[in-house]
Amino acid sequence: MKNNIQNDGQKRAVVYCRVSSKEQVEEGNSLVSQERICREYAIKSGYEIVEVFIEKGESAKTANRPELERLRKLCTAKKANIHAVIAYKVDRISRNIADYSAIRVSLKKHGVEIKSVTEFFEDTPAGRFMENIIANVGQFDNDVRTERCIGGMREAMLEGRYVWMASLGYDNIKVNGKSTIAPNAMAPLMKETFELIAKRIYSTDVVRLVMAKRGLVDKKGNPIGRGNFFRLIRNPLYKGTINKFGTTTKGTFDPIVSDELFDEVQAILKGRKNAVKHYLHDNPDFPLRRFVLNEQGKQLTGYWSKGKRKKYPYYSFHLPGTTIRKEVVEQKFVDFLSQYSFDAVHLNTIKGYLEKYFGKHAQNQKNDSEAIQNRITEINQQIDNLITLQTNGSISTTLLSNRVQKFELELEELTDLLKVKTEEKVDINDLLKFATKVLKQPHLLWQKSPLDIKKRIQVFDFPNGIVFDGANFRTPKVCSIYKLKEQIDTNKLLVVNSRFPGKNTVSTHVLLHSDFLLLETKEFWEQIVQELKQLQGIVET
After folding, report:
1. pTM
2. 194 partner at 20 to 30 Å CA-CA among 41, 106, 175, 496?
3. CATH for 170-275, among 3.40.50.410, 3.90.220.20, 3.90.1750.20, 3.10.20.30?
């Protein structure tokens, strides 16, 4: 409810009502009854109600409540001419004594008093003393509840139950009436994430991008940012361990990964090279070993055969008639890979679409980063102002500490977000330069790379492996970048055919339109960008 605000000498007040669902059930302090009692008090005391502020389900432990902030802005506006804030009880305003004192002082500076309908405080030393006692009672009640809650959490932890917000891959559930967690549908993807990191096929950040494509998203369905991703894979909860209150307890819930896998991933994150043995059995002389399959799915092996004067390298499926000289097999693979070479038309197409879809995106990312940086600067200035106020005696040390602590938490979140924004920025020129370098002759890139890079390139290019029938290579699946080349080649052919229309003109144009539709979707190019970043991470490792 709002009335026109006029400066006519009439006493004006606003009403503030707040209740949590729990309080409403236990104490009966419904919003309706609070508002009714406050209105009756206003009429008896001669106040005109300017506006009623309703706070639904908000805790009074913090002053950061939307309706309370609106109330404070209205009360401190010069033209509003507000004289009082009417509340059912003091603890409706705040259950934190430092916050309540800060609110009361800030309102008092603008001539606004807090009126409690069910508690009476005279504007005398004794009255203000009683007001502080009542406000302290609210905080005491909160502190007792908090202590009981923490005690319950400690007890649950000792029983091996995790009672906090479940991490990605787990759900909060109840077993025999007691809270704990259990793996959910996202758990297999989390396990696959750990396994993929342990294999050292991709860098850890590339694993994040790979798993995002496979469906690993946060609880809101959004891709996981770099900072959050690293926090997840460092969380010992996934091996069934609870680390809280300075102690470690083995949980009774099902772990998503084994202790060995979790510890191996942590060693990789810390850069311990001897922690990973993925390539110990690989021979640098035979990069296609175990990657190439025959028609029946048997893996290709490599070995040296001793001749009269020297050794000769061979590949074989360990079946009769499948032994072939190493250089023959690898030359056939190089020829197969060379068919995916990009020419100037392919690269110009990539450039055009990247500029179309990500030129504006890059500007938006820049704007977001600037907004975050501005907020960080603003918070630092507010902290400096608080320190000045405390030095002058305008606010207490307790209030300063509480405010600074909240600001520091926000600063930490903003800093992480700024880092993620920076890392997720699409640098079109950098991607184009990289694409030109590696896509013109992908077969030469493979030939010049060391064994570990060769193997990562192979898995990236052909995710489901590659089949060799003794004469030719084929593959059931290629990466999206190579699909892009095929798409552009198809479109070039259709464009040429459409210049010479005949009896099949209609069907040709239908095909042309269908093929171009894929290239005209931003989602397709987002996938291309992600794969270019993955390949860049592999090559530049």
Report:
1. 0.41
2. 175
3. 3.90.1750.20
